[in-house]
Amino acid sequence: MSGLETTAKTLADQSVTQPIAVAPLFADVRARFDSAAADVHDEAAWKQLRDAWLGRRSGVLTQITDNWLKPAAPELKRAVGAALNDLRAHVEAQIEARRVAIESGAEQATLARDRVDLSLPGVIRPVGSHHLLCQIFEEIEDIFVSIGFSVVEGPEIETPYYNFEALNIPEHHPVRDDMDTFYIEVPPASAGKPPGQLLLRTHTSPMQIRTMEKQKPPVRVIVPGKVYRRDNPDATHSFAFHQVEGLAVDSDITFCDFTGTIEYFVKQFFGANVKTRFRPSYFPFTEPSVEFDVSCIFCGGSGCGASGGVCSKCKGAGWIELFGAGMVDPAVYGFVGYDPKKVSGFAFGMGIDRLAMLKYGIEDLQVFFQNDIRFLRQFP
Amino acid sequence: MKIVYNWLKEFVDVTAAPQELASRLALSGTNIGSVENGPHGAVIDAEVGSNRPDCLSHLGIAREVAAIYRQPLVFTPPHPAESAAAKASDAVRVSIESPELCGRYTARVIRNVKVQPPPKWLKDRLEASGVASISNIVDITNFVMLELGNPMHAFDLDRVRDHRIVIRRAKPGEKMQTLDGVERVMDPGMPLVCDGDGSRSIGSGVMGGAATEISFATKNVLLECAWFDPVSIRRAARLLKLHTEASTRFGRGADPEMAEVASRRAAELILQLAGGELLSGVVDVYPGRRAPRKIRVTRAEILRVMGADIPDREIERILSALGFAPVRVDENRGAEGSLLAAWECTQPSWRADVEREIDLVEEIARVHGLDKFPARLPAARQGAQRLPHYEAEARLRERLIGLGYREINTIPHVSEERDALFRPEGVTPARIANPLSEEANVLRSTGAVTMAATLEWNLNHSQRNLRLFEIARHYRLNVAANGGDAQPVETRVLTLGATGEAREKGLYDSARDFSFADLKGDLDSVGALAGGLRWDHGGPDWLNTGKRGRIRLGEGEIGAAGQLARRVAEKLKLRQDVFLAELALGPLYCMYYGVKNARRYQPIPRFPAVERDFSLLLAEGTAFDDVRKTIQSVGITELVSIEAADLFRGKNIPAGKYSLLVRVTFQSRETTLTDSQIADYSAQIVAALEKNLVAQLRTG
Q: What is the pLDDT of residue A3?
């Protein structure tokens, strides 16, 4: 298109001499543009429209400038100039609007084909996992390290001295009957000399003795590790299980420090709402000795089951026995050369497998050691 | 110990309901198993600790209840009417030949009793306590034991030869028929009660003998209440596998002073329920009599151990209620709450477990209430240390998990047969002397043995694609050549196990089986933490000869890796290829810290690197390492890396040869390398490869 018939001629040729006659001319041009623009639906037609109306050489607006405005009589120039500006603004805006409309339409079409399906999985690179018990160990270590306890380790094959005697459990003590012990077959040493006895530690407590033998107070340690008792395996027994021992000895450790430490730990581990209590108990290597209970994690201490009746975990008691502990018995200090009149301390030994079972609602202890990947996967 | 609530009330006026009473008992140290309401009222099952034999009686529990509820304990020793004419000491003689086994022996004699079924109240009490009823006389001995804590025995006096009792040590192999009709072999550690000349045993501290048993024909009764040494009784019960109410009480330590009182109590009941005549006096041989021990407890010690104060009156009230008869003995007597306060206490005969000041502190604290001591955190006095290898192990775990391995935790007990499959020559395993089963009679001497078992478990449960690791110990005995004691050696090892697909088929990738190269690559990624592993041919014979390698780090060998040998896989019934590796972690951790501390920043090169590929035809058996060493031997300073980029055998490759694409990278730190320099280097490399390895350069 090279302009319209009206824009090819000057105003004088069309006998327009009064400013009042300019407006109808422009209105006609505008109506023509609108109808042309309405037919534009793709990129090629849009380019034609743009060139026909805004082309610098022969576009309609250039023609109006050249044929109407430039030769116009002085009394018309003002009216023509104003009308032309209005028309230009309208045409430019409409052409841009058409461009946007056409482009978004094209996008819709390509989108439908190329867009990712977010409901499909990505490429999953296989990632491994920590064993749950390792996670629990780390959590416990973090809590105790944060309050000044160092982490130490010790041998699992022990001597009766460290496992029993030095913990104030002499040979015929009834507690030895309760801790059924695995002994190691020791090959005969030199002729005539009886072989030294070796056993699998029944608790992590031997490290109390080994630690105190090695260092002077202040002592603040925890001892994570495997322990062994000669129990037939079932849902709550395994002949190997795990403990974290704790020991704090200093010139000024009291029962209050002991309960404070244990309560701090258990609230970090199970949450601030858990209630605690200490019941007097008996262990040869602590005095006073306690059993430490927490309010049942499953029923919140109410003793009631979720679907009525009695809570199956605490048997309705509202409390769950967590572990044994107490103030270090002065007799133990005698074995390590500490002065029982000058130092005092506390010790505890918690079963890690049991803590994990309570925290995650695991019913069968054996799953920890079967290592079925359907179990491992649940604790990434 | 079953506590019959109504029985308890005979000794203390407790008003609390049974459930509430049980919970208060628990909080003061008597562990409670259950509270049940039965036909004879509430019965509280107390799990009495081995240190508290005094609580194995209603009187003992009543003493605890009295202390908790601030009630008086009501118990008056009985004084049954005695015959004016006959004396017990004329009717029976007692001698103790082994005073170390029998510290006291009391005998009373009741004549002309009528043995008959017991009255209902007695039967009910025993039933509530879970003890079978036999006859009035036998039931009375059991009743008094449950009431006062002293086991007793009634003999048919007329069946006791010479009316003479001798207590002596058992002879080796000596036999006795016990009341349950079983003939048992005694052990020289056990005390025996014998009659006549002492040759025939009629009783022990565990169970009476059948020979002198009370029957419904019995007329005259010899009532024994004795005190036997706890250690020998526990030993006897264990050896005889016979745990009785008597062995439990004697084995933990009965009250020797109460023995004579209990005997009177039983005599009183016999006169009431079986009639007869009680001979006057008692035959009481008491070689084990001890003066009561004095124990001092001070406020200073209470404060030092417990960390919070307890008022004088409360201390004195608790000690008195428990029978310790406290007396203030310090200079400031009369001054309430004095820091110097000290009390001298007398150990009651029923509390052999309380010997020291700390024991008294515990007694005071537990009755006062452990919840009365305010919790606080102790001051930290030094920095907390992690385990020395903590960081190295954390990095190792993190890397293995990133590589897709899941951590496992195994029990080290395995069967001897399994362990032997993986155990290196010459290693002495740690065998269990008293295993629970033959499946678990030795501690693993390698990590591989339990890893293989874990792969087996998962494969048997249809879990076929596995990559597992374990960080744990293996156990061996170091048997000294010079005849010294065997030393246990526990070594921390990393074990890897993998089988199935390295990559499963998915939307975007095809499946690929796990191969030796996967295992080697994963181990090299781990080894990179410690400066890199080196691989040599060889390894343990449980690995496939063609697909295994020894792993070295620094100067030492730290382990091996490879595919499980078919011979072993078949034994374990593993039907797919399995890969295992085991590394000693000590040297790895040591090198981790060495490498980390020596690590320094290398400036990033400013000039571009240039790569050149060499497609080589090599004779089979030529290792990549030979190629690398040959290229390095040329001595080009700008050479920065030599990589194997592609490997090909088969079509267009002559037999006995293989094709290797080697990518060499050159880079200078001073300048941009020119084409002619690179061409020169390449020519030198090709010449060296041709000369040293008879390599042919492939073209096209």
A: 56
Query: Cα distance from A107 to chain B (closest Cα, Å)?
Result: 27
Q: Give the ipTM.
A: 0.90
- DSSP E strands in B70-146: the ranges are 93-96, 102-111
Place of tokens 């605690």: A276
**How many Å lie between the alpha carbon of B307 and the closest alpha carbon of chain A?**
5
Tens-place pLDDT, residues B164-198: 999 999 999 898 888 888 888 988 889 999 999 98
User: Which chain B residue has its CA at the smallest distance from A195's CA?
Assistant: B485
Measuring CA to CA, which residue among B197, B235, B41, B214 is closest to residue B117? B214
Identify all chain B residues contacting A226, using CB atoms and an 8 Å cutoff: 412, 472
Which residues in chain B touch residue A152, judged by CB atoms under 8 angstroms apart? 387
Q: What angle, 0 to 180 degrees and rounded to 10, lies between the N-to-C axes of helices B136-148 and B245-252?
A: 30
- Token pair listed for A325: 């502990």
Determine the Cα–Cα distance for residues B65 and B63; give it in Å rounded to an integer: 5
At B480, the pLDDT band (50, 70, 90 cuts) reads confident
Q: Residue B578's beta-bridge partner residues?
A: B499
Helix (H) / strand (E) containing A207:
helix A206-214
Provide DSSP, B615-650. Answer: EEEEETT--HHHHHHHHHHT--TTEEEEEEEEEE-S
From the list B373, B406, B409, the residue facing A369 with the nearest CB is B409
Q: Do A240 and B412 touch (CB under 8 A)?
A: yes
Q: Among all residues of chain B, which has the CA nearest to that of A288?
A: B362
Find all residues with CB under 8 Å of B675, minimum gap 6, and list them: none
B430: chain A residues, CB-CB within 8 Å: 157, 184-185, 198
For residue A112, the distance in angstroms to the closest alpha carbon of chain B comes to 20
pLDDT value at A1 more than 60: no
Contact between A260 and B378 using a beta-carbon 8 Å cutoff: yes
Assign A79 a pLDDT band (cuts: 50, 70, 90): confident
Mean pLDDT on A249-266 = 96
State whether residue A279 sits within 8 Å of chain B by CB: yes
In what side-by-side order are the strands of the sheet with B31-38?
B2-4, B41-47, B31-38
| A88 has a pLDDT exceeding 80 | yes
Chain B residue with the nearest C-alpha to that of A182: B434
Contact at CB, A371 and B457, closer than 8 angstroms: yes
Chains A & B: contacts with CB separation below 8 Å: 258
| Radius of gyration of chain B measured on its C-alpha atoms | 41
Q: Write the pLDDT tens digit of every residue in B647-696.
A: 998 888 888 899 999 999 999 999 999 999 999 999 999 999 999 999 99
Average pLDDT of chain A is 90
Q: pLDDT by residue (tens digit) across B420-469?
A: 999 999 999 999 999 999 999 999 999 999 999 999 999 999 999 999 99
Interface of A with B in 233-272 (CB under 8 A): 238-240, 248, 250, 252-257, 259-261, 263-264
At position B538, the amino acid (one-letter code) is G
> Among the residues of B325-389, which ranges form H helices?
357-368
Per-residue pLDDT averaged across A86-103, rounded? 90
Query: Does the distance separating the beta carbons of A144 and B384 come in below 8 Å?
Result: yes
Give Cα separations from B79 to A190, A283, B90, B112, B528 (angstroms).
65, 40, 20, 20, 88
Is the CB of residue B365 less than 8 Å from the CB of residue B359?
no
Report in angstroms the alpha-carbon separations of B175 from A313, B98, B189, B200. 48, 18, 14, 9
Residue whose tokens read 């290229």: B631
Q: Which chain B residue has the Cα nearest residue A239?
A: B411
User: pTM of the full predicted structure?
Assistant: 0.85
A134 near B CB under 8 A: yes
Q: Is the pLDDT of residue B264 over 90?
A: yes
Interface of A with B in 287-326 (CB under 8 A): 287-291
B445 and B431 in contact (C-beta within 8 Å)? no
